[in-house]
Amino acid sequence: MPDQPILLVHGGAWAIPDDAVEAHTFGVRSALLAGYALLERGATAVDAVEAAVAVLEDDEAFDAGRGSFLTRDGKVQLDALLMDGGVTGTMRAGGVACVERLRNPIHAARLVLEKSPHVYFVGRDAENFAAEHGMPLIDNADLVLDRERKRLAVAQHKERAGLPDRTFSGVQETDKEAPGLASHDTEYDASSHDTVGAVALDAGGNVAAATSTGGTLNKAPGRVGDSSLIGCGCYADNLSAAVSLTGWGEPIMKLVLGKWAVDRVLAGDAPDAAAEAAIAYLFRRLGGHGGIILLGPDGRYGLAHNTPRMAWGVCNQRGVQVGIKA
Ligand code: ASP
Asked: H or E segment at 293?
């Protein structure tokens, strides 16, 4: 008997500092409780991952929705994908990218999944599609926090001065060179990955996945990362597995890493082995870093990361488990 329903959530993988751990675990727990309550009432895996991710988008601790990292011109630009592993044998997906006026892009992704013959919309037309289906359009400024303006200023200062960002490639470079910055601020840099995601298996045996992000700090306007691209930062197929990733988007995209991971499950790997293999491959092939949650239709799951920490949680009939996996 598969372990179902089950919901897994992540809230990014990076060097989450000690003073941010509580906010991350609180957010992950809240998302699990919201999504799992739906699953217990018989809702679908798609409903559960959408609800869980919406909670994380509403939580300013994460790089999704309000409080996201800023583009180099000081705006929030959001990407999200929702994917249904196939209730009726036809996989469904809905994605949006570069949206600036939606508080919850994952709800727009749901509208695309449900209401459109297409699977992906970008920019103004994505916003207009969402508005036509009842979502309010807000000012971009409502999504921007002072905290993020300051973080952007730090990143741009370092960029102009030719100073390195911290990396996860072995040595943790320090931020000593950034003068006049409080240590708390320097903890947050371009190596922060606070993208959020969820994967679920419902009582009907269907899997779904959702990923939502503000992308990378100081990104060029119009840049789209892995998170909302099918098979990159998110994927779900009842025949293999559901997956959500976080991390440095460009290498994840080049490797189509989400699909790579679920294909390993399809080929017979256990999800925990496939998750480890995917992150090892990301680093070995392109020096990338990030984290992954992976859930098979039999209820087995895995998570892995090659960053110092990862915010994650799982909820099933045995209860809730939340951690900062180190
Ligand atoms: N993967 C995201 C992106 O590249 C960033 C992240 O996970 O924090 O857009």
From this structure: strand 290-295
Reported as a single tens digit per residue, the pLDDT across 265-278 is: 999 999 999 999 99
Q: Which of 82-91, 216-225, 227-236, 301-310 is predicted least confidently?
A: 82-91
Question: 131 falls in which pLDDT band (50, 70, 90)?
Answer: very high
**pLDDT per residue as tens digits for the range 202-219:** 999 999 999 999 999 999
CA–CA separation, 257 and 233 (whole Å) = 7
DSSP SS3 for 117: coil
71, 195, 216, 307: the active-site residue: 195
CA–centroid distance, residue 249 to ligand 1 (Å): 5
Gyration radius (Cα) of the chain, Å: 18
User: So where are the chain's domains?
Assistant: 6-68+165-325
Ligand 1, pocket-test mutation among 193, 289, 305, 310, most atoms within 8 A of CB: 193
Cβ atoms of 295 and 261 closer than 8 Å: no
Are 199 and 208 contacting, i.e. CB atoms less than 8 angstroms apart?
A: yes
User: Does any ligand 1 atom lie closer than 6 A to the CB of residue 195?
Assistant: yes
Helix (H) or strand (E) holding 27: helix 18-40
Give me the residue label for tokens 């680093």. Answer: 283
> Which atom of ligand 1 is nearest the CA belonging to 250?
4
Burial (CB < 10 A; 0-12, 13-18, 19+), residue 151, is buried
Which residues lie closer than 8 Å to 46 by C-beta, 6 or more apart?
82, 84, 92, 110, 113, 200, 206, 208
Cα 127 → chain centroid: 20
Structural tokens at position 170:
């072995």
Ordered strands of the 242-247 beta sheet: 234-236, 242-247, 290-295, 301-305
CATH superfamily for domain 6-68+165-325: (Glycosyl)asparaginase (3.60.20.30)
What is the DSSP pairing of strand 207-213 with strand 196-201? antiparallel
* 189 C-beta closer than 6 A to ligand 1: no
